[in-house]
Amino acid sequence: MGKILFVMTKADQLTLADGTRHSTGYWAEEFAAPYRAVTEAGHEVVVATPGGIAPPVDRASLAPEYNGGEAGAEAVAALLEQAVELRRPIALNDVDLADYLAVFYPGGHGPMEDLAADGDSARLLVTALDAGKPLALVCHGVAALLATGRPDGTSPFDGYRVTGFSNAEEAQGGLGDKLSWRLEDRLTALGVRYAQGEPWASFVITDRNLITGQNPGSSAELATTLLKALG
User: Fold this and answer.
1) pTM
2) Distances (CA, A) of 8 to 54, 68, 183, 185, 219
């Protein structure tokens, strides 16, 4: 058993194409399902954010309709309250990757605002990839890959099979035409081999030590895949 690093957003607002701001943060299920899985397996979770700022939850993600009803919403809210790691994050630039067995990025639209352009996160991702450590990202957390690059200008993830929140899901979620950019488009331009499953259904891709999940419903499967990768 050991430590697993959860890299999370500090952004509570997303800048839209028209310059207005949309309330956001991390998506509750995308933290809760993996957190429950890895802690029940005996691992310790450490949360890291830009500047060590406590990650904000997207309040919309606490609604019953996204959690299978009132009981599910109450269970997720209780887990977030009990997860003290959310209230004592470390700063990304203080992370020593040698201390961790694996790295995980939850989503929510927040990472599009900060982690998609964060240099400390980018260095961590490349180091984890090159070291062969299990590296898992789900939904909009996959946007963190966009900040990475090799000295020659190429992406370290060039040619990797990757999934993430799709254009179809953005459209069905109501933000598709309002966003200044969409994840599927940027991933395709990055040079990864983007693939997607049915909207909102669990869809997880593993390519070498990189594990990606498409949407909130992929969180539990992604966590199971990550634990299997840890042996």
Assistant:
1) 0.97
2) 9, 24, 17, 22, 15
Contact 36, 83 (CB under 8 A): no
**For the segment 138-197, what is each residue's pLDDT rounded down to a tens digit?**
999 999 999 999 988 889 999 999 999 999 999 999 999 999 999 999 999 999 999 999
Q: Which residues pair with 21 in a beta bridge?
A: 15
CATH code of the domain containing 32: 3.40.50.880
The one-letter amino acid at 87: R
Full residue range of the structural domain in which residue 52 is found: 3-229
**Cα dihedral 229/79/3/159 (nearest 10):** 40
Q: How many folded domains does the chain comprise?
A: 1
| Beta strand segments in 40-168, E | 44-49, 90-91, 102-105, 135-138, 161-162
* pLDDT tens string 119-143: 999 999 999 999 999 999 999 999 9
CA 104 – CA 95 distance, rounded (Å):
13
CB of 200 closer than 8 Å to CB of 217: yes
